[in-house]
Amino acid sequence: MKEKQKQSCQNKCEKHCEEHDKKDCSCQHEDGQCTCNQDKANEYLEMAKRLQAEFENYRKRTFFEIKKAKEDGEIGVIEAFLPCLDTFKVAKQSITDEKVLQGVEMIEHNILQALEKLGVQKIQSVGQNYDPNLHNAIAVMCDEKKPNDIILDEYQAGYKYNDRVIRYSKVIVNKKED
After folding, report:
1. At what angle do helices 98-117 and 37-94 cross, to 10 degrees?
2. CB count, 10 Å around CB of 101?
3. Cα distances (Å, whole numbers) of residue 171 to 15, 81, 132
């Protein structure tokens, strides 16, 4: 009887292998069950492909997270220096000695150049059109000689880091009375 079952199982295996066009198909016969080694190999291959895709997604996600953390850290340091740059504007207004003023302007220029190398740009404001994506209007004045929505004065400079605004310019905007 066992021999008959084994023969029947082998016939099923051969039929199974032919149906799936598996040339190197070999089967194991245990307890009247036929398991195809090729099916197991395909199952492991699919599992390996899934794991490889998951790892690739993990690698991309980790790269993005590291890049964002680095950028956030750089922005934190830059934001700490921005109040120092603001003091240059106040200091230059109070300096009367021309040589001291030139020295302060040179230091300010060097700091701005160093920040530009890091990707920081000062937002242009005075004489520009008001843009709520770059500027924060803190006051409105009326100058009939200038067009509407032109920035008349800058109270505090704004800065961008790699096209991301890290501080908006605080400005005074022209609005003509209607």
Report:
1. 170
2. 15
3. 82, 20, 11
Yes or no: say if 158 and 120 are a contact pair by the CB < 8 Å rule. no
Distance CA 162, CA 159 (A): 10
Contact between 173 and 140 (Cβ < 8 Å): yes
On the 0-12 / 13-18 / 19+ scale of CB atoms within 10 A, 48 is exposed
Residue ranges of domains in the chain, CATH in brackets: 36-118 (3.90.20), 121-178 (2.30.22.10)
| Sheet architecture: strand order including 169-174 | 135-141, 169-174, 151-156
3-state secondary structure of 71: helix
Q: pTM of the prediction?
A: 0.63
Q: How far apart are CA 79 and CA 15, in angstroms?
A: 73
Task: Output the tens digit of pLDDT for each of the chain's 178 residues.
Answer: 556 555 555 666 666 666 555 555 555 555 555 566 666 778 888 999 999 999 999 999 999 999 999 989 989 988 888 898 888 888 888 888 899 999 999 999 999 899 889 889 999 999 899 999 999 999 998 888 888 888 999 999 999 998 889 999 999 999 877 6
